[in-house]
Write a structure and sequence with these properties.
Blueprint: H1 2-20, H2 35-39, H3 43-46, E1 63-68, E2 74-80, E3 88-93, H4 101-114, E4 118-123, H5 133-139, H6 144-158, E5 163-169, H7 171-182, E6 187-193, H8 201-204, E7 211-216, H9 224-236, E8 241-246, H10 262-280
Length: about 280
């Protein structure tokens, strides 16, 4: 009888602990900066983005998944699970067009080249994808709270033991940096392709990693002056950053862009891959 009482008492304690354990939906919703939303109100910036060519990609290993977010909703991601169980993860962030097939293809390329790393391309537009500049300039106006909630949901989905690197292009470049900040001690790396830098030095101080920044010298949306300011702010925050500047325009690594630079893209990809392998220790 005594043993039964102790067992019941232990079960109650365990249930109480479980009830008090924070879950995704118990967290306060974080806000992340989205300076791209402000840039999207500038017509000259919008015109920098050539509309993507139609493209369909059939994945060999990926699948769409859903996960809960702390604002009481759900979010989506394109998941590529490593063949062997691992806590190493790469978060991939979309361009301002959305989680389209170009991003899924790039996520799968990274997955195949990194090996033994889980890859999650996170849908920041809740299922919407733009095919025109006008659509993209509207979709990018996601509230800061929703962006933060999606990132928090992704962090909860992969779990507290996950070691996470981040990569993104254009809008996703800025999101990669915001995700790295939000990830705290779980963050192992951050790659920004011509994304909007964080200007708040106090936020940059929260980074748990150095940063690889890849930019175009002919990019009038994220010009070299903005990149220099980013370097200065990172230094003031006590963080290391490596900048690779190519003689190329905005979105030069997107094969659907008429300004696509094949040589610069290949070089940047190899640098990115080496960085991710080093930081994820694979």
């Amino acid at each position: 009888m005594k043993k039964l009482f102790l067992l019941a008492g232990g079960l109650l304690v365990a249930l109480a602990s479980y009830a008090q354990a924070p879950s995704c939906c118990d967290q306060p919703v974080a806000e992340v900066n989205n300076d791209m939303a402000l840039l999207a109100s500038n017509k000259s910036f919008v015109m920098l983005h050539e509309e993507p060519l139609p493209f369909t990609y059939k994945s060999a290993a990926g699948e769409m998944v859903k996960f809960k977010t702390p604002d009481g909703k759900e979010a989506n991601g394109f998941l590529l699970k490593a063949p062997k169980e691992t806590n190493k993860w790469l978060f991939v962030y979309q361009e301002w067009w959305g989680l389209n097939d170009y991003i899924k293809q790039e996520a799968e390329k990274l997955y195949n080249d990194l090996k033994d790393v889980n890859v999650l391309a996170i849908d920041m537009y809740d299922g919407k994808v733009a095919t025109t500049r006008e659509e993209a300039s509207k979709l990018v106006q996601v509230p800061r709270e929703r962006l933060g909630a999606i990132m928090q949901g992704a962090l909860s989905y992969v779990g507290p033991q996950a070691q996470i690197a981040n990569v993104g292009w254009c809008f996703g470049g800025g999101m990669s940096l915001q995700s790295a900040i939000l990830g705290g001690k779980q963050t192992m790396g951050c790659v920004i392709y011509y994304g909007q830098p964080e200007k708040n030095i106090e936020r940059l101080k929260a980074l748990n990693t150095n940063v690889l920044g890849i930019f175009g010298a002919k990019d009038s949306g994220i010009p070299p002056a903005a990149v220099s300011e980013f370097e200065k702010n990172m230094k003031e925050a006590g963080k290391d950053i490596t900048i690779k500047m190519y003689d190329a325009p905005h979105a030069f690594a997107n094969p659907s862009n008429p300004g696509y630079d094949k040589e610069a893209t290949a070089d940047a990809y190899q640098i990115t891959l080496n960085y991710l392998k080093t930081h994820l220790k694979v």
